Amino acid sequence: MAYPNRYQAKHLAILGFVASIASAVTFWGVSLKSESYIGGFHPYLNQAQAGYQIDHGKNPIRNREFYLIMMGSSILMAGLILSADDGAGNALIDLRPDAFRKDFAETAIITGQIFNESLGTAIAGGLSWAVLRGKKTAEVVWLNTAPAQVKTALEKKTLAVTWLKEFLKAPHAWIAGRTRAGKTFLMLWILKEILKADSNVELRIWDIHYLKPDPVTGRKNDWMRLPRSYVQRKPEDIMAAFLAEDEELERRKELGINKPKRIILIDELNSTAKACNGGKGKDGEFSRLLAKFLYESAGYGWKFLLSGQALAVGEADISEDTRRNMALAICGDDAADSDALLRLSKSKAKELAQEAGTLLKQKVRVACVQIPGRGATIQVIPDLSMAPTWEIKTKQPQDADLAWWKSIWTSEKKQWLETLAYRFVAGEIKSPLKEEVCQGFGVPYGPRSPRYARFVADAWRNAVEIAKQRLEKDEE
Ligand SMILES: Nc1ncnc2c1ncn2[C@@H]1O[C@H](COP(=O)(O)OP(=O)(O)OP(=O)(O)O)[C@@H](O)[C@H]1O
Ligand SMILES: [Mg+2]
Question: Does residue 215 line the site of ligand 1, with CB under 6 A?
């Protein structure tokens, strides 16, 4: 069947008719729609988060009448086309079903051809334009007009994790700030990040306020549910633990080893030093050991994480030298106090305090941070309100003796032991326990031999019981 490849009057009429009906439907649809509007566009800034907020709303569409009139006109147009004739008295649109179906199909085919041609032309044109312009991709442009303060907060927020990474590269870290400045929360974050990066560390926490309820929230800090045995609370226990660390340090020096890594976290350094020094101030044992450790221990695998009220610790006075090699952070309101910042930067203290003050006013948590070899900067501390839900999971230390017993206590071994026991019960041999049995298991005999006391002795007793029963049966 041959199709015409151009429109005749009847095809145009059908096209017009369909278009009119389609427009009428569209206008009707639009007249029912509501319209969204943007009512406000304002920056917001809350706890370490900044951005824009846009108010949206919806109204029933304005000028509804206009669309209804357009709909009416389209219907009228469709009616006119239906009733139009070719001037010779023949209707343009033949409404008899067979004729209409054929004309409609032809219209669709011609339209499709014309559409394809136009599309091809447009694509070819577009391509040659692009080639001529030498463009391969669309360009991307950025709008960067956030108000200055919002921008610093935004930028700093994205940098929050970066600064902590750098902060933790220093051998030891010290966090200062008044009560409720967020020192402990910051410690939780630090600890989490350290363990995320490397879980093969020996962690010790010395916290004289362990499990003391927070005066405001009532929450007790349990160091992310760390088992109790990792934490020392009493000054005498802390002191004993410190002396044990000292022994370990000497041992490592002797052997020249620096593994495994040891993390010692001392929360509330000032009060701890005071309680542990026994009234001797910085000549006390605790302060003496602390100075030694901060000075020498990093090379043997230690990392100290300290928190205290201020960097000037009368009791545990840390030399300027030592402090220069530590990562320091002054959190909370003190970060906006230029006097407090003098210890970090004499020349920039005022400027830094001002920057911190601006952020604090916007309810952003900040710290003045110093990383060895770099100038002090103001950094944002992210929202850590989830910190109390974090959890440190500890692996049980391997029970080496149990593992040994499981590997050696095979059915052959059991049979061998029961045979020996039977011969012993039957009076064939004297007790083989001390020699043959212990040799068979490769353990020394006696209650002070842990493998013997825990496993071998029991196994022998059982074997003897079984042998006695068997012997009775055999004698019956
Ligand atoms: N980064 C943070 N994000 C959200 N909340 C925080 C953050 N830091 C601290 N807080 C809130 O402030 C309170 C006090 O923080 P934190 O206990 O860490 O202070 P602190 O400096 O250790 O005080 P103290 O000297 O009394 O031990 C916390 O209970 C917590 O609700
Ligand atoms: Mg605290």
Answer: no
Q: What is the pLDDT of residues 108-166, one digit of tens each?
A: 888 888 888 887 777 777 666 666 665 555 556 666 555 455 555 556 656 666 889 99
The answer, yes or no, to whether any atom of ligand 1 lies below 6 A from the CB of 46, is no
Number of domains in the chain: 3
> Does 380 sit in the ligand 1 pocket, CB within 6 Å?
no
| Ligand 1 binding pocket includes 364 (Cβ within 6 Å) | no
Element (H, E) at 369: strand 366-370
Q: Which of 31-45, 131-145, 455-469 shows the lowest per-residue confidence on average (mean pLDDT)?
A: 131-145
Q: Which residues contact 3 (CB under 8 A, 6 or more apart)?
A: 106, 109, 110
pLDDT at 460: 95
To test ligand 1's pocket by mutation, which of 184, 359, 383 has the most ligand atoms within 8 angstroms of CB?
A: 184
- Higher confidence at residue 259 or residue 417? 417
Does residue 189 share a domain with residue 114? Answer: no
**Among 37-46, 208-217, 240-249, 359-368, whose mean pLDDT is lowest?**
37-46
Q: In angstroms, rounded to a whole number, what is the distance separating the alpha carbons of residues 298 and 314?
A: 23
Centroid of ligand 2 to alpha carbon of 369 (angstroms): 18
Clarify whether residues 125 and 156 are in a common domain.
no
In this predicted structure, the answer to whether residue 37 has a pLDDT above a threshold of 80 is no
pLDDT score of 315 more than 50: no
Whether 54 shows a pLDDT value over 90: the answer reads: no
Q: Is the CB of 313 under 6 A from ligand 1?
A: no
User: Model pTM?
Assistant: 0.58
Atom of ligand 1 nearest to the CA of 331: 21
181 Cβ inside 6 Å of ligand 1: yes
The token duo for 6 is 């151009």
Mean pLDDT computed over 93-97: 85
How far is Cα 103 from Cα 3, in angstroms, rounded to an integer?
10
Q: What CA–CA distance (Å, rounded) separates 460 from 465?
A: 9
* Domain around 457: 400-475
CA 354 centroid distance within chain:
31
Cα separation, 167 vs 162, in Å, equals 9
Residues 415, 379, single domain; the answer is: no
**How far apart (Å, rounded) are the C-alpha atoms in residues 81 and 476?**
120
Looking up residue 376, the CATH number of its domain turns out to be 3.40.50.300
DSSP state of 318: P
The answer to whether 174 and 327 are in contact (CB under 8 A) is yes
What's the gap in Å between 258 CA and the centre of ligand 2?
30
Percent of the chain at pLDDT > 90 equals 47
User: Do 40 and 81 have their domain in common?
Assistant: yes
Region for 373 from its dihedrals, namely left if φ exceeds 0, alpha if ψ lies in -120 to 50, beta otherwise: left
Which neighbouring-strand residues pair with 93?
none
Confirm or reject: Cβ of 184 under 6 Å from ligand 1.
yes
